[in-house]
Amino acid sequence: MAAEFILQTQGLTKEFKGFVAVNDVDLKVRRGHIHALIGPNGAGKTTFFNLLTKFLPPSRGRIFFNDTDITTERPAQTALRGIVRSFQISAVFPHMTVLENVRAALQRNLGTSFHFWKPERSLFGLHARALELLSAVDLQDFAQELTVNLPYGRKRALELATTLALEPELMLLDEPTQGMGHEDVDRVTQLIKKVSAGRTILMVEHNMNVVASIADRITVLQRGAIIADGTYAEVSRNPLVMEAYMGTTEAALSSDAPGAGA
């Protein structure tokens, strides 16, 4: 029987020469949920993501994935377990087509990423799956378009497709709607909800309309520590959260409130 919680941290802490960026964080992410990590600027959200993906070693504490202690694993080992991260800045190949971007991600799963001498026709078998993934993020009509020509929101959708190509069990999304207009925000929000079927998502997000509409659970960080954890209704009424965002409940948890960044 699969564990109830896919990801857990125990006392996770990161210090930088006396500055505590992540402070004794106990987090539990329930399998199959969309879990949002929010907080004002400097709260420690991105540092926490860097600890999960092994870009940084913790000062102390432990990380468990599927009940296995992965605290000391290297980044590649963690990725192979099925923890895949997207970043605040879109990470796609601009001068490849949309289809080629997804196909490159699929090729990584075959272990042939560096077989540059193989003819392109050897990759044609990946086309069907690549097109399925593009369809999942509503990019099927852009398959042959150069990625550099896509509007920003579509590039983020493509990044979702390349992330899905790696067959993640847990997707870590870092500010997936950052820098978008309302129309793109709505589109990407619905795509995140769509691709969450059958997997777990932990996301850092500053847009509270997005968080309110799709997050099953929300954890709030301030100065590296958890100050609230619960549903949107519970968190939005928490006085510590209102104080952290320097306003009333409505001001604190609105799309215009401050809260982007690390």
Topology as a string of helices (H) and strands (E): EEEHEEHEHHHEHEHEEHHH
Q: What is the residue-mean pLDDT, rounded to a whole number?
A: 86
Helix content: 25-40%
Assign the CATH superfamily of the largest domain.
P-loop containing nucleotide triphosphate hydrolases
What spatial form do the alpha-carbon principal axes imply? globular
Biggest sheet: strands, sense, closure? 6 strands, mixed
Return the CATH topology of the largest domain. Answer: Rossmann fold
How do the strands and helices of this protein lay out in sequence?
Blueprint: E1 5-16, E2 19-30, E3 34-38, H1 45-52, E4 60-65, E5 68-69, H2 75-80, E6 83-86, H3 98-110, H4 127-136, H5 152-165, E7 170-174, H6 182-195, E8 200-204, H7 208-214, E9 217-222, E10 225-230, H8 232-236, H9 239-244, H10 249-252
Helix pairs in contact: 3-4, 3-5, 4-5, 5-6
Q: Would you kindly provide a written description of the structure presented here, covering whatever features stand out?
A:
- The chain is an alpha/beta fold and 262 residues long.
- 33% of the residues lie in helices and 24% in strands.
- β4 and β5 form a beta hairpin.
- α3 packs across α4, α3 packs parallel to α5 (152-165) and α5 (152-165) packs parallel to α6 (182-195).
